[in-house]
Specification:
This protein is of the alpha+beta class. Helix content is 26%, strand content 38%. Among the domains are: 47 residues; 99 residues, Thrombin, subunit H, CATH 2.40.10.10; 95 residues, Pdz3 Domain, CATH 2.30.42. It has a six-stranded antiparallel beta barrel. Strands 7-8-9-12-11-10 form a six-stranded antiparallel beta barrel. Strands 14, 15, 16, 17, 18 and 19 form a six-stranded antiparallel sheet that branches.
Length: 392
């Protein structure tokens, strides 16, 4: 009897002990599972914070929306609504009328002094028309500030504005000479005036040239990207994965119909070109217009190539140069064919003109020319455009 009671007691004690072990094990497993869930959630949270997110956080606070209102004078047809005068003068009169033309774009704050880099076509260039320029910072700042026009470069389609404000965010400028085709590209701007917008793609190509001017602007050495760029993105930055500005978004290719919007072919001005523009403005207060003295260039036709004994139709025929100009002092003559500038081959007169327009005052360039079948190398240093001279 005592033995049976002892066995029963030990059995109950073992059951309680086993249950304690099981309960403790379940608690440990639950805590381990909870810890794993927290770790997984933390891993997911970390995976969301990509290089793109970090890059946007660095640059987007310094990207502003630019709103320009220009007062333009137009002529409006007008007709007196009077039966007597309508009988004798059934024609419309033309009366002058002032109206306001709004436009939008993007810009980039480049230093704490309030200088903003954008496109020339966003602000309308160095116009004599009355205009108001306002820039809006993204949230959480949200300030809207009056901006004043400082300078622009029609050739490269760049302009600089200035605002008077404190505690401005500044975007870090990178190096466009160190870009890799295929690397991430982030476009930030104000498309269609929707507000701060980010799109992402890759660097599609480098050194894209457009011999024909787009309006008044010559685009050379452009960065091509498939990041979505639309009207309103102009003047905003193209950013790499390190959060550095490598270009200024300027225009898109849409197959001829610019009402379509982005089809994945956008172009940005390299930040190295923008740096040269900013240095010129900082040193001289404006962009000095470079003068080569080459008055007229002509494309080489096959007939001209045969007449000049040229092996191809590539190159630019010098038609006329100004007396005592940099080209004249360099030894360039009418009838010479420019086949390369600074080692870059020239395919046409437009090509050569685009390169020459991109050069700065006091910059020296090397002209490779063909004269009566002889290849010559001439050195030309550009001067500032003489104010006493007519604009060629």
């Amino acid at each position: 009897m005592l033995f049976t009671l002892a066995i029963h007691y030990l059995s109950d004690a073992f059951k309680h002990l086993l249950w304690d072990y099981v309960l403790n094990a379940l608690i440990i497993l639950f805590l381990l599972g909870l810890s794993a869930s927290f770790a997984a959630a933390d891993t997911i949270s970390q995976s969301r914070r990509t290089a793109v997110v970090s890059a946007v956080e660095k640059v987007q606070p310094a990207v502003v929306s630019v709103h320009v209102t220009t007062r333009v004078r137009s002529l409006r047809p007008y007709r007196l609504r009077d039966p007597f005068w309508d009988f004798f003068s059934p024609f419309y009169y033309v009366v002058p009328e002032d109206r306001e033309r709004p436009s939008t774009g993007s810009g980039l704050i480049i230093n704490s002094e309030g200088y903003i880099l954008t496109n020339d076509h966003v602000v309308g260039g160095d116009t004599q028309q009355e205009r108001r320029i306002k820039v809006s910072l993204p949230e959480p700042d949200g300030r809207t500030l009056d901006a004043r026009y400082i300078a622009s470069d029609i050739g490269s389609d760049l302009a600089v504005l200035k605002v008077d404000a404190l505690d401005l965010p500044v975007a870090p400028l990178g190096n466009s000479d160190d870009i890799l085709v295929g690397e991430w590209a982030i476009a930030i701007g104000n498309p269609f005036d929707l507000g701060p917008t980010v799109s992402i793609g890759v660097i599609s190509a480098l050194d894209r040239d457009f011999p024909q001017p787009q309006g008044e602007h010559y685009y050379r050495d452009m960065i091509q990207t498939d990041a979505a760029i639309n009207p309103g993105n102009s003047g905003g930055p193209l950013v790499n994965a390190d959060g550095e500005v490598i270009g200024i978004n300027s225009f898109i290719y849409t197959g001829g119909d610019y009402t379509i919007g982005s089809i994945g072919i956008g172009f940005a001005i390299p930040i190295s070109t923008a740096r040269n523009f900013l240095n010129e403005v900082q040193q001289h207060g404006q962009v000095r217009r470079a003068w080569s003295g080459i008055v007229a260039l002509k494309n080489i036709t096959q007939r001209l190539a045969d007449y000049l004994s040229l092996s191809s139709t590539e190159g630019a025929l010098v038609v006329k140069i100004a007396v005592d100009s940099p080209a004249d002092q360099a030894g360039l003559e009418s009838g010479d064919v420019i086949v390369a500038i600074n080692g870059e081959k020239m395919r046409s007169g437009e090509d050569a003109l685009g390169v020459l327009r991109g050069l700065r005052v006091d910059e020296e360039c090397t002209l490779h020319v063909v004269r009566y079948g002889e290849h010559l190398e001439l050195s030309m240093r550009l001067k500032e455009w003489p104010r006493s001279r007519q604009r060629w």
